Fold each of these.
Amino acid sequence: MTELLRRLRFLFRRGAFERELEEEMQHHLALKSEHSSRAEAARQFGNIALLKENSRGMWTFTFLEQLAQDLRYGLRAMLANKLFTGMAVLSLALGIGANTAIYSFMDAILMSRLPVPHPEDLVILHWSNRDRAPVVHGINGSAWRDEKHGRISPNFPHAAYERLRENRSLPATVFAYARAYELNVVVRRQAEVLKGMYVSGGYYSGLGVTPAIGRLIADEDDRAGAPAVAVLSYQFWQSRFGSRPDAIGSQVLINNTPFTVIGVSAPGFFGVSAGHEAPVSIPLHAMPLFAPDREMEARYRFLDQNFYWVEMMGRLRPGATLPAAEAVLRTAFHRFALASATSENERTGEMPSLWLQEGRLGIDSLRRQYGKPLFVLMTMVGLILAIACANIANLLLSRASARRREMAVRMSLGAGRWRVIRQLLTESILLSCTGGVLGLIVAVWGIRSILWLLSPPGDELTLHAGLNWTVLAFTLALALGTGVIFGLAPALQATGRDFTPALKETRSSAVSGHRKRFAPGLGHVLIISQVALSLVLAVAAGLFVRTLSRLNAIELGFNRDNILVFTLNANQGGYKGEALAAFYSRLTARFRAIPGVQAAALSDMLLVSYHWNDTTVTIPGAPAPAPDKKPNTALIRVDPGFLAVMQIPVLVGRDLDARDLRSPRVAVVTEQFVKKYFPGQNPVGRRIGLHDTKAPADIQIIGVAKTTRYNSLKEEETPPLVYIPYSQDMADLGRVTFELRTGTNPLKISGIVRGIVHDASPTVPITGMTTQSAVIDQTISEQRTFANLCTGFAALALLIACVGLYGTMAYSVARRTNEIGIRMALGAARGGIVWMVFSQVTVLAAIGIAIGLGIAWQTGHFVASFLYEVKPTDSLVMAGAALALITAAAVAGFGPAWRASRVDPMAALRHE
Amino acid sequence: MGTTTRPEIPPGTLYMLILKSLARTGVEESGGMHGYGIAQHIQRISGDILQVEEGSLYPALQRMLIKGWVVAEWKQSENNRRARFYRLTSDGHKQLARELQDYAHVATAIGRVIEAV
């Protein structure tokens, strides 16, 4: 204790202490020199500075004090070199931040396990076939292709699920579910549109999810005629019921049908698919309640053995393995499929073959959707990090060699070797840490922006992408590692035994004697790789920007600007038949009356929004088509004002008008339709039939409209298209989209629109309020995101590489001031000096560009699928990127070269 | 670094040697010894075999100050220079006794080992 007091007292009078120690040693030296020569005494006494430091060290909290000292010195050094430090820290922050953000997102999508007990025992059931299994009459759900399996679908007939569930000898218990993409849910008179899940009785017990309160859906709830019940997710219960226990037993309206809430699932459980969080779950057998004809829907859903629509998962019984379970389930499903064949043709055709996928990660639709774009983004941010690390390394290397003399001086004045190394290390770690802290901020911000960038409008990605600390730690460790390695290596070198040569160097003559001018040092290699990587990014940016401009240049056939769009589903809200038509026409009239609205209409889908409604068409008098090549057309059901709102010109005949809503069936077709089905004829007045080849051709063509893009900007061929009034077939009219053309920014009137809709009916909520332009942009969001991000990344990489280049050249010029002075004294022209420096820049940049072009050429095919009408080896892009880099390198090299030519020979020679 | 090779002072014994030098009768009365004096004394008494390196002497003295075994005082030295004189405290006396005892133990033990046949 008293020892501590003595130490503390020392801290307050260290100035006096230093003086006393100095005096004591001088005294010692004086006495000693009386006995031998002073030089001899000094030599024997050794290193006074080190000795003082050691003596001082006895007193203090040396480590902390020196650390503070090093940090102060490091900060001062960083501030003295603002450009270098700024660039290093910035590049590191962006590198670390972007990587952490992208990897966190990847992790949330690709790696997170389902929040249920023992997720490793879960399996997902799929079937696949090479070509097209004839027993599968229809799929309601999803299907995709891959190399290994052919056509894949997770959807099965409900009867197949029942067969597998009843078989107790199977090595897995199976349960089923189907997604509800839009449910109109009214809680306490507040309507909203939510995603939901139709589940079988074994869903919650199979997953192992427990209720937070109440009970969950069980087998007795999922059968025909059972009371309509619903289970809420914990989060929904919290937000809409304020976690009140009396929510249990209360009624909610789902698609205008009352359901009783029986329970709330455990906190954290969001469903089986990371991208499809279901706030509400209802039994599979509740599905027919929403159909106009319940009995037909029930027959269709539960008895049709050839209609594939439910998805299935299974939980392996203890001891069962996935391959063993797969073999048993495959046989069982094969037997079912064989028995379900309705004709000889189907019986002898290819059968769908069941297989199992590990279920611990849940359903992988997001993985399929975002896997590849994320991989591309990951590669890009990985390159940024590599460039940033190379920059840090370069910075530290050139700084270390610039300070070789300083180190030598310090060591000859008595600084311990470890002490000097430690100080250098502190500086590099300080740099890395500053970058890391800023990187954290970039990461948090980045995660938010990625969510925003990738999710389509009106369909926010409900994804729990939090900051991934493991990834952050990894990238930070990488940055620290770079700092330590590239800080330590030159430090060890500079503080080696023999520092006399370094001492003898003058500020300006250094190194040039030791090294040949173009000997490639580590610094040069780093510069070259930076240039090469920047070029790769610049090429990628060029490709994406070109793709984007190609996409934006596509002629749509309608005017996309200033149209407000939003979706309603009054059918789900309880309006049927005449009431539905009246509701919509009343609303349309009120919208038309809003000041600033020039025209308003509605349709059952939007143009260029990835929606697709395809149907068969009958042309009387046309030759009978082959049975597998039925003529078909795209179809949009519209309000008569639609073509006017979209400003699609009618070329022949007349547009639809209000009379057509109630008149005999009429249609407007597109030029494309005429080209395909009435080549060289005037179709006005002709009749066509829709939906069924046997249906009578009772729809009269009254006009021909200009062809527009239909499904997406990228469709290879615009399909023939028919516009019919929405009042034909009201029964299956689901959601409709309103289009309001305005004079200025259409979103300005969104408040008024919401008011009108709420006023008209509080049970019909608006979803997806946006603009037609934004909808189209969203269909190319991938390309837009890539173009924007990649341009940003490329600019950043270019900037970092230029700073590296500038730093290296400026430093090399400074070192060679003396040499340049001599050259000029001997008659070298200023131009020659500029060229001398410039040629070095050019050589470095050219090597980097050549390597970069090679890499870009080799790896371009990885992004080919994201490009549109641009080849990955587009020579214009390659040339542009190379030009950008050579220009940037020239700019970076100009400063040092110019400075070299300004060297005053006299001053340079006199200098030291 | 000198060219003459002398045996090093065995590690750990420097404190004991300094303490012992300061504990001699008469030192206390004459107001203690300065650093150079201590070094000279040890060298002389040991017959020029033990030479105290200044690099270890002053850090050792600082450490002993911290431990409270010695106290220091600035005074005029014999040749009219200001010098720092060190004196033993009671803690220092106790420490010396402890170190001597430990050293005796170790020395006896080492003696047994190297004289064993």
Note: The interface with chain A takes residues 1-2, 34-36, 39, 53-55, 58-59, 61-63, 65-68, 74, 77, 79, 81-84 of chain B (CB under 8 Å).
Amino acid sequence: MNSLILRTTAPLLLILLALYSVFVLWRGHYEPGGGFVGGLLLAGGVALYALSAGPSKARDLLRMLPRTLIGLGLLLGIGAGVAGLFIGEALFFPIWGAYIPGVGATGTVPLFAICVYLVVAGTAAEILLTLAED
Amino acid sequence: MLIAIATAFVAAILAPLLYRIKQQLATVLAPGVALGLFAYFASKIPQVTEDGPILESHVWVPGMNVHASFILDGLGLVFALLVTGIGALIFTYAAAYFADERDRLGGVLSIFLLFMGSMLGVVLADDAITLFIFWELTSVTSFFLIGYKFYTEKAKKSALQALVITGAGGLVLLVGLLLMSHAAIAQGMPPEEARRISALADADIQGHSLYTAIFVLVVLGAFSKSAQMPLHFWLPGAMVAPTPISAYLHSATMVKAGTFLLARLNPQLGGTELWFWTVTTVGAVTMVVAAAIAVFQRDLKSVLAYTTVSALGTLTMLAGIGTETAAKAFALFLVVHALYKAPLFMAAGTIDKKAGTRDPWAIRGLAYRMRGTGIVIALACLSMAGIPPFFGFIGKEELYATAFYYDDLEWMSTALAVAAWLGAAFTAAAALVVALPAFSRGPGGPDPSKPPKEGPLRMVAAPAILAAAGIVLGTLNVLAEDLVAAVATSIYDAPVSVTLALWHGLEYPYGVMLLMSAASLAVAGLLYAKLSSKPPAEESKLGRLQGAEVYARVIDGIYKLAGATARVVQGGPLHRHVFIVTAVAIAAAATPILMRWETPQTTGTQPGIPEIVIVALGIASLGLLIKAKNRLVQTAAAGVIGFAIAFLFAIYSGPDLAITQLMVETLMVILLVLVLHRLPARSVVHAAPKRIVHGVIALAGGALVTVLLLLAASPRYPRDASDFYIAHLEEEPELARNLINAILENFRAMDTLGEIVVLAIAGVGVTALVKLHKLRQREEGEQDAGSGDDAGQQAPREAQNDPAARGAEAGSEDPADPSDPAEGDQDEERSS
């Protein structure tokens, strides 16, 4: 899309959206938000950038295939689920780490939120970029 | 032992990373780790042979009574030594073999190490579940290795075939193992004991009513893995893998896992009539038939593959017989076979690389050009043919002795001797087929203008070490006595003493055995002479026995069924697809509601002005959506409806839903815009009757959702679930305070995992469809360029690339792509 305004602002918006998506992901533990919305926000940023700079530039910027994000997310997600088995509990038994001031609770549940974030962002970005390239 | 296994797995993760940094690091790391583990297990030999098995147990899943228990007894030890020792040599060999495919060596070494760790897990496991997990891991890793040339149809098929057969066998085995501990618990064994395989030897499983079922399940698992007839066909198919892989997995290690299991479970399950007759017969038949097939193959690797099947048959037969002599013969033959088969595979690989053929009848005189490899082949084949003073001779003598010392049934003793003799004769003939052409002069050699050169040092030294071990152990056979005795003790479940010798004198039965050896060699020589004058046809019918065809029919049938179902349910244009899915969903959900109809009662508040405005906006957009013919207008209208719903969510205190809905709508609009330019600008208008049917379905869908919402809000329905979640959230302060996310990420995390998997599959599916479409376009574009007549209405930039293909398919196939993510997204949305 050949809009000067979009071309100029898209990189900035991408950074903002990426940061905001992480914020929404983090916020989801206590307030409305979470991995799903966060992932969509990130994908939205990527889509915006792809519309202005072209999908190949967007891919270069990501530095890894969106598919890698999907795989990483699923792997971590299964890991977060299986972790419970190793302490003799059921699948997806929550294991909590230390409470870090300023960050919040740590453990398998927040980890799982990150997995959802990665898979959703990866999938949405993959679909959008693939279609945009075609 | 856990640390030994873990070392292999950690090395498997490190290998590809190191390979990227510096290739040599990885090519040293992999054999180094294997050699280190070999040294570790070798250092345990005195302890195991003198003091008996070493046990080790780690708590794993106490809630399910699963422990990572390991046992290092004679049987496990000798397997561990073979797996690590041969592993170290093959990893060295592989580094040279894959020299011209450098980019993939790191991955191969990684999977090799992964496989080695899994195999160690199998042979050391003492816990039923631990055994099963490692068992399946060897199947999975071998799938990747057989499918090394994943871009060829044959490799894909063979890899899948091996995975299906051995993987299914593993599942069957799991049930068998669980039933075993179930039977032991029923007999009063404490449950924590009953999962330990070594402890199960004390139970009387043979006397339990489930014994037949257990036997069938376990033996099926073992037969599938160890390629016993009629499940053998996957093993020759697996020979599409590069030779180092065949040498490691399909001669020395993985395929032995089945016979290992039979030997391991001999104390627990053996000794019955059923065991003896089934296992011995299947083993003996496989031994003889596979060796006979081997002689007539025109591919070195096929010859070796079928002799491997035959050797596995021998081991199975010995496990079935289960006498003290049989246990000794098993231990000997296991080592003998590994020491000659792995170097032969490696030599075949070197010949393939350097001479460009694997036809044994096309390499006359090769041994004089490739002297090192020639010596390896000579040494290994002498052991294979069972010629003194090679280790193979001792193995064969013990095999004959098993038959002669079997005194339960006289005619059986004779039958076993005949079977063993036939097997030995055919195996010796196969050894001649492998070795002699390379050493004989005459026509039919490799192209003299391009004489093949010897492979690099590593490709000669690695098999040479193994082949040399065959003669060293043959002459200095005292060295092997203790270890063989320890293996036989594990199998026989009572102390066994072993004295090995090349010369036993001439008194009965040793004199007869020498005569049999001589006769088998004579027969082999005659057979070879006959083949030498007239080599077998290229396409031998012997190889294709019933099993492979049954497998092919079953797999074909599954594909056909899937294709037929898809054509009915998902064929045709997108609107029909959507129509079927929606109609089925409505029918499925509406039936139970209508069958127990209750008028929903609501206690909701009256809507205010903002809500009325928003709903009115939504309805207006809906009207526009139905009336509009232009796709862009339709997309915008659908977007407005989505945003209107998002605002409703926001007003009725559903902020999570609202922001999710907003994001989904935004991305959906972008998505639609991305695919819009390739669709005709105006949407298809159906005839009136069709429009009415579509309208009815749409209205029914809307009505269903409305009723469902009203029912969910109705106070008559219990709110147990909500109360449960709220109560637990207050109990555990660390749980997310956002209840919605606590449900998604914690209480029902399993559901969410399922959903993100669906999402991921949809994403990968879209990529695959688009890429496939592009590929077809390119192919069609090459075939009939320049017949684009209706390309004018497409988006000009895209259409110019490929007018013909785009015009043909734009109407039906393209819209299917965005439909997938839409479904995935909406599933997710509903759950939140």
Note: Chain A touches chain B through 56 residues (CB under 8 Å).
